[in-house]
Every structure is written in structure tokens, then in C-alpha cells.
Inverse folding.
């Protein structure tokens, strides 16, 4: 099959899979199958960039950098909703509705706590995504919106009776609780400012200048409004949801058609008691009059429709007491204070600890040991102290002070200017080392199964390991002696440690816990350098020139490799047989089967480097242009080879174009 036909086929298959996953809620492919189709598609597009269309699934990977978001005027303004806070407010709403539309019925939907995102499709293709802004004018965030898998890039319009050239859809962009927890945990470790809730995190992610970051944040989208509904012959909100789903959107399945307001009130109560069981945060329900004729009769006030209302859940805050404040030293040496609380039930579970983030937060909220406090769960998942109840003090409360010495190793504690975090100076602080090992084995790093924090602690306390490299020197006789370690789990643990040796360079770089180097940077560095040795030799200036690596990260990388202790760990890892080269399985296909000629003077690469790069990616670098040449990379002062390529009609790429192809 020709590449072009295969590309069409892949697009069709991926689109079908998206539709089944999001539109029908009935996946037909496993994640691995899906990823492998997507990878194949990207490979073909890499070879033929001229075939890339804006509705290609490859556009979800992100990587587009926007310096500012252009303003766009919404086709129709985005209105806000009136709020109801209890059953009586809902009954009042119902009375107002029934005076005008006595036999109205309702559609009740979950109110997802995210932000409105307006989507525009021209000829079925997503051409624009925009934020709400002031309701009239929003910001264009199309590149970022494309990374959300629940947003179809191409509408599934076969089932519509007519085609319409323009379709506007509105819905809620949100961050799932799990992504929110992961993001904030990472940010806390890095001493970065935390997001207060998934809504802020989603908003921040959609306003990223680099859509690659948005892609990593794994946002979701639930569609609930279709502006051209009436043109399509749609008469009710329930039909809107149905049609949206047929078009390939994900709609929230927990909606209900109900007739009386008492039924609505009961459903609201039911959802309120289940609110913590959803994978995303909800802050209430939206009650809409179902029939468009009724909606039209009811009309609008100056700022909101009279045919809908938002029922808001009461904020969940409970009172408890701070029994003590504990300090935990993380892998970057940050001392994080945690409040030990009198057990209390909030947002569906018992809470006994809450992070206090840092000393500034404790001071700003004037939180003292022994205080009664109000707590809630940020984003429904992270227990947090809202404020202290100073009026309840009896004078026995104790003001918390940061110690001058690290509670884990006794070394000096310092605070950098401009940073909220206090840190331990000692890079080999045992607590840091433990956290570093926990990070090393975690899923995105070396992914060693069966090695949770508890086992790591046991291994350290029994003197079996000091650093991450020691893991590769464990043997059965020693680990079987650990408490609660059975023969089977010991064997499994050794097997997963063994198989992690082949994890590949990208995972290993991330696992090392170099400050500021996240999963993506690990991948970028692995692709660029190919081996740990090459990476270690890179200087700051050179690193800064690698796309996605900024000054702070470059410095941090250089410092990491300069450290004697880190060098020793690396040597031990190498000695144990941990793979220190880029995983060819991942990158080798990109240029597979391609014969590439490099000519002229390049700006960034030495000739040898770029040739090595081509070979690592599965291509063949050749010195002469023939009709078998797939494409040439032309630098400055390119001469006869460039002319020959032009004559033969062979594609010619600049260095930058080549980089864009391989870094995608
Ligand atoms: S309907 C005129 N439906 O809640 C129709 N809004 O003020 C207006 N929201 O920020 C919106 N889930 O983004 C609607 N199922 C849902 C919703 C929903 C969340 C948000 C919306 C807006 C606010 C309503």
C-alpha cells in the first residue's frame, strides 16, 4: 500500500477509535493499539510533511508555541447562569418557568468545574477554540484545544440529514482529579506555586504558550451546547446532547430528563451525595428547560437565560484541630510542613493530615499548633487548611517555627531569596535520598513494579540500599529477610528491577531527579544526545540551544553531572548494566527506510552529529544525491548537491525543518 493510502487509512481508524471512545463511550482499541496507529501516522507525516492537515490526529501531540493569544469575538455571547443554593431556590425557579411554560420539562446535567471552551468547525474541521473571556470576546487557544482528545478535530457528520458549513459547540474543558493531584504533587516537589483547584489548573494549562505542555496535562472536555441546533432541526436540549455525541463529542452521561421540580431536587441530592465518586470535580448541577419552544418563550434577562439555572453545592468545609506539624524532606531538599489533624470526615473520606505547603502559608493564615481550623479538599482530592479559628484559642496554642537544622540529618536549613521553600543543604540527606529513590522507581521514571515507598523505606532501614543504583545489586537472600516479603513477591521484585535496566535513556534521565528536568525534557535530551556519555559532556550554552531546554534547566543539568556523588551513582548504574542509550525501539522508525543527504554548512550541528542523529532514528545518511534520495538537508552555501536535488525534484529541508520533523 502506498504511504498516502496508508495515511488515509490510519486517519480513518484513529478517528473511528476516538468516536467510539468519546462519542459512544465504548472503546474499540486498547491504549497501546491506539498509540501504535498514531505513531505510524506521525512517521508517515514526518516523511511527507506536505501531507499534514490541521485535522490530523498528530496535531494533538502539541508543540506549537504561541507568544500571545489573539482576541476573537464569539458568534453569540456566552451567558452566565443564575444560581440556586437550595430546594426553595429551585422551587422559585420552577414557579417562574411554569407561569410562562406550564408543561415544561427539564434536562438536568452535572455542572463540571472547569472553564467554558467555545469550538468552531468549518466544513466539519475544527478551526478555532476560544476561552470565554468577557463573554463577548475571548482568546483564541486553538493549538492548545487540539491537544484535548475528547475534542474531535473532524466532525462525524454522516448521520446528519444536512450539512452545514459552520458549527459552533460549547462545553466545559476540565482537568481530571488524578491529573490535578499528579501536577500539584510534582509542583510541590519542585517548590513551584501550586494550583488552588482543577479549574485553575485547567485554565492555566489552556493558556500555555507551548501546546506540548497542554498536551501533557491531559485535559478533558464535555460538550453541552450547539449553536446551530435549530438549523439542524433539533428541538430539545436532550437532542442536542444526542447529536453532539453522534458528532464525536464526549457528553456527560449523567444527565437526566425529569418533569417535576421535586424530581429535580431529588436528583440534585443524589448527585450531591455521589459527587466525590466522579473522576472530575463538579460544583453543582445545571437545570435546563428541555424544549426550545419553551426556552424561546421564557427568553433572557440582560445577562442570563430564564430557562436555566445552576444549582450550586454548598462548599464542603469542616472544622477540626491541629494536633501537630510534621516536616517532610522531599527529594529536592524542600522541607514541607504537614498538619497532623484530629481525624475528620470531609468530601467522602477521613482526613488526618493536610499539607501546609510552606512557612509563608502558615504565617499568612496564622496557623498555630493546637488551633481549631477549617479544612476542605482542594479539587476534591487534596486536603487543605483554609483558615484558623482564632476566636477558639485558649492561649495554649504554639506558633510554628522552621528549624535551623534539617529534621532528617541535622544539616543547615536555608531559604533562597524569592523562594517560598526552605531547603536542607545536604544533598546526601537520608530523607532526600529516600524520596529520590521513590522517584527513581516511579511509573514515569524506571517504572519498577512492587517497589512502593514502604518497601523503599524498609530497604534503606535494613541497610540494603543507600542510593538508587544499589537496587541493581540486591539479591534474593537479602530481600527475603524483609518483613512481609514473601518468596513470590521477592522474585517478582527482582524481575521488575532487572527488566527496568532496559527502560531506555529518556526514562533514566527523568529518574535521576535532576531539578527541573521532567518527563518531556528527559525525552528531548535522550533524542538529542542519544547516550548518557554525550549528555554528560554537553555544556550549558549547547544545552540551552536544544529546543525546550531553558537556562535554568541547562544550569541544573550541568551541576548535576559535575557532582561527584552523582557520578558515582551513574557509574554503579552503568556497571550493573542499566541501559544508557536512547531506546532505539522508540525512535528508530521515524526515518526508517529513508536515504538522506546532508549538504552545506549547518548552524547547530556538526556534520557528524546530524549523521549520527539520522542513523539513530533509523535513517541512512548518504553522501551523494540520486533518484533514491528521500530528501536533503541543506545548510548555508550548499552547492552542487542542492542543484542536483532541485533537478530531480527531491524535497529540500532546512535544518530547522528537519528538527521540527524529528522532535515532534
Ligand atoms: S450551560 C446559557 N451546562 O457553568 C447556557 N454550563 O454559568 C450556559 N458549566 O461557566 C451554560 N457544566 O462553563 C452549562 N452542563 C453544563 C455546565 C455548564 C459546567 C459551567 C459553564 C459556565 C457556568 C454556568
Amino acid at each position: 500500500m502506498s504511504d498516502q493510502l496508508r495515511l488515509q487509512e490510519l486517519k480513518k481508524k484513529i478517528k473511528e477509535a476516538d468516536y467510539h471512545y468519546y462519542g459512544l463511550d465504548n472503546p474499540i482499541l486498547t491504549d497501546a493499539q491506539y498509540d501504535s496507529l498514531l505513531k505510524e501516522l506521525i512517521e508517515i507525516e514526518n516523511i511527507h510533511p506536505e501531507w499534514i492537515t490541521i485535522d490530523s490526529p498528530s496535531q494533538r501531540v502539541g508543540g506549537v508555541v504561541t507568544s500571545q493569544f489573539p482576541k476573537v469575538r464569539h458568534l453569540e455571547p456566552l451567558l452566565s447562569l443564575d444560581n440556586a443554593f437550595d430546594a426553595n431556590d429551585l422551587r422559585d425557579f420552577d414557579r417562574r418557568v411554569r407561569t410562562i411554560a406550564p408543561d415544561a420539562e427539564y434536562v438536568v446535567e452535572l455542572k463540571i468545574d472547569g472553564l467554558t471552551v467555545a469550538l468552531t468547525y468549518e466544513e466539519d474541521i475544527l478551526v478555532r477554540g476560544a476561552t470565554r473571556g468577557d463573554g463577548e470576546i475571548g482568546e483564541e487557544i486553538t493549538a492548545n484545544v487540539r491537544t484535548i482528545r475528547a475534542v474531535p478535530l473532524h466532525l462525524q457528520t454522516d448521520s446528519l440529514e444536512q450539512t452545514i458549513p459552520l458549527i459552533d459547540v460549547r462545553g466545559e474543558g476540565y482537568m481530571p482529579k488524578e491529573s490535578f493531584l499528579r501536577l500539584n504533587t510534582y509542583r510541590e516537589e519542585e517548590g513551584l506555586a501550586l494550583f488552588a483547584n482543577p479549574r485553575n489548573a485547567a485554565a492555566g494549562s489552556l493558556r500555555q504558550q507551548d501546546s506540548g505542555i497542554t498536551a501533557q496535562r491531559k485535559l478533558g472536555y464535555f460538550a453541552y451546547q450547539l449553536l446551530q441546533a435549530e438549523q439542524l432541526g433539533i428541538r430539545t436540549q436532550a437532542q442536542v446532547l444526542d447529536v453532539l455525541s453522534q458528532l464525536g463529542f464526549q457528553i456527560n452521561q449523567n444527565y437526566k430528563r425529569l418533569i417535576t421540580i421535586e424530581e429535580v431536587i431529588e436528583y440534585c441530592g443524589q448527585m450531591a451525595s455521589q459527587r466525590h465518586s466522579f473522576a472530575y470535580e463538579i460544583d453543582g448541577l445545571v437545570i435546563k428547560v428541555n424544549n426550545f419552544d419553551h426556552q424561546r418563550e421564557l427568553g433572557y434577562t440582560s445577562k442570563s437565560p430564564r430557562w436555566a439555572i445552576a444549582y450550586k453545592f454548598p462548599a464542603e468545609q469542616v472544622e477540626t484541630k491541629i494536633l501537630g506539624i510534621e516536616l517532610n524532606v522531599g527529594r529536592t531538599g524542600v522541607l514541607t510542613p504537614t498538619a497532623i489533624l484530629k481525624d475528620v470526615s470531609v468530601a467522602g473520606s477521613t482526613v488526618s493530615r493536610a499539607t501546609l505547603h510552606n512557612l509563608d502559608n502558615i504565617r499568612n493564615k496564622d496557623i498555630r499548633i493546637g488551633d481549631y481550623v477549617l479544612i476542605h479538599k482542594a479539587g476534591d482530592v487534596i486536603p487543605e487548611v483554609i483558615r484558623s479559628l482564632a476566636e477558639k484559642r485558649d492561649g495554649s496554642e504554639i506558633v510554628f517555627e522552621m528549624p535551623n537544622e534539617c529534621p532528617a540529618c541535622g544539616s543547615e536549613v536555608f531559604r533562597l531569596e524569592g523562594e517560598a521553600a526552605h531547603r536542607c543543604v545536604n544533598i546526601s540527606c537520608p530523607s532526600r535520598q529516600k524520596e529520590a529513590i521513590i522517584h527513581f522507581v516511579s511509573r514515569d521514571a524506571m517504572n519498577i513494579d512492587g517497589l512502593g515507598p514502604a518497601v523503599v523505606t524498609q530497604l534503606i532501614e535494613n541497610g540494603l540500599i543507600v542510593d538508587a543504583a544499589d537496587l541493581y545489586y540486591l539479591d534474593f537472600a537479602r530481600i527475603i529477610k524483609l518483613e512481609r516479603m514473601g518468596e513470590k513477591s521477592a522474585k517478582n521484585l527482582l524481575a521488575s528491577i532487572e527488566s527496568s535496566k532496559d527502560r531506555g535513556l529518556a526514562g533514566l534521565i527523568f529518574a535521576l531527579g535532576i531539578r527541573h528536568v521532567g518527563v518531556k525534557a528527559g525525552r528531548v535530551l535522550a533524542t538529542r544526545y542519544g547516550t548518557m556519555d554525550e549528555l554528560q559532556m554537553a555544556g550549558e550554552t549547547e544545552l540551552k540551544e536544544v529546543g525546550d531546554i531553558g537556562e535554568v534547566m541547562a544550569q541544573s543539568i550541568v551541576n548535576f553531572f559535575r557532582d561527584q556523588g552523582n557520578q558515582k551513582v551513574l557509574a554503579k548504574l552503568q556497571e550493573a548494566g542499566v541501559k544508557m542509550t536512547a531506546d532505539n525501539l522508540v525512535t528508530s522508525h521515524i526515518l526508517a527506510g529513508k536515504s538522506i543527504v546532508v549538504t552545506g554548512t549547518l548552524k547547530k550541528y556538526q556534520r557528524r552529529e546530524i549523521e549520527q542523529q539520522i542513523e539513530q532514528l533509523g535513517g541512512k545518511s548518504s553522501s551523494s544525491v540520486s533518484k533514491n534520495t528521500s530528501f536533503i538537508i541543506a545548510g548555508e552555501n550548499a552547492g552542487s548537491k542542492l542543484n542536483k536535488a532541485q533537478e530531480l525534484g527531491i524535497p529540500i529541508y532546512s535544518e530547522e525543518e528537519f528538527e521540527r520533523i524529528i522532535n515532534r
User: Anything to note?
Assistant: The longest strand covers residues 318-329. The chain has five domains: 3-60, 72-312, 318-399, 425-584, 595-662.
